[in-house]
User: Which sequence fits this backbone?
């Protein structure tokens, strides 16, 4: 073997060894509750090595396997509906009617948000109404248990592992509590933010409508929203709505309701 081939082989061996080491160190996912406690212990060691405090890790160890979260994650059937069916199921006409009233009664707030972020009231109000019924349905699941369960679950472990680390950081900072309640997937606040997005785009306590709406506008702007550009399918700002939620029928519903609220 030539010197070049020896170096190439040695490099490849080192990469393979590193990959094996990462796999050996990472907590293993599971598809039932049976391995959850062992997974938490392994994950706790990883979190401690990343600087998460002992008190927050202790809170993580109290997290329960959230069976309801797994059931909800497997049963999101409404995203398979047609647009008309989805709008009817989600009460779009009620959202639009109340949204128009809120646009008028909270005109100063929405004007301030639009001036700062370039996002008009319609899509923000549509998201607010769609996500929580304007704050009336924010969920009552333990946020930490929900996200830990999804980080352990084998369906999307990498995505929710990032969310879990973000949740632990927010608990360390005192922004969230281990007892914070939210929806089935761990989203919290009036417009339902996951922890990683709270870190990146949150502008205050998301249980306060003004903060939640500003944070949502901040998210949309960070994902390419351009002031005064359109937000219907095929228009420049629709991609920002796509970034908010991956379901096509949800995206089209927000765009349509937003236009109706904005008077289009």
Assistant:
């Amino acid at each position: 073997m030539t010197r070049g081939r020896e170096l190439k082989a040695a490099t490849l061996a080192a990469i393979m060894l590193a990959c094996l080491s990462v796999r050996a160190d990472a907590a293993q996912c599971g598809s039932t509750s049976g391995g959850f406690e062992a997974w938490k212990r392994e994950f706790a060691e990883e979190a401690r090595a990343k600087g998460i405090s002992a008190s927050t890790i202790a809170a993580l160890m109290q997290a329960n396997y959230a069976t309801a979260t797994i059931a909800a994650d497997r049963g999101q059937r409404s995203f398979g509906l047609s647009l008309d069916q989805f709008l009817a199921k989600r009460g779009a006409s009620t959202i639009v009617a109340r949204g128009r009233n809120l646009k008028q009664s909270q005109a100063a707030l929405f004007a301030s948000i639009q001036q700062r972020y370039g996002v008009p009231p319609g899509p923000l109000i549509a998201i607010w109404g769609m996500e929580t019924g304007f704050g009336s349905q924010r969920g009552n699941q333990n946020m930490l248990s929900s996200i830990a369960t999804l980080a352990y679950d084998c369906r999307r472990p990498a995505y929710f592992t990032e969310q879990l680390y973000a949740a632990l950081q927010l608990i360390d900072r005192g922004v969230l509590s281990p007892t914070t309640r939210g929806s089935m997937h761990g989203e919290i606040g009036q417009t339902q933010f996951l922890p990683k997005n709270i870190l990146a785009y949150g502008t205050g306590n998301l249980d306060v409508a003004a903060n939640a709406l500003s944070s949502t506008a901040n998210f949309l702007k960070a994902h390419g929203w351009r002031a005064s550009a359109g937000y219907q399918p095929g228009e420049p700002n629709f991609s920002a709505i796509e970034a908010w939620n991956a379901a096509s029928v949800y995206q089209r519903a927000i765009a349509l309701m937003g236009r109706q609220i904005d008077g289009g």
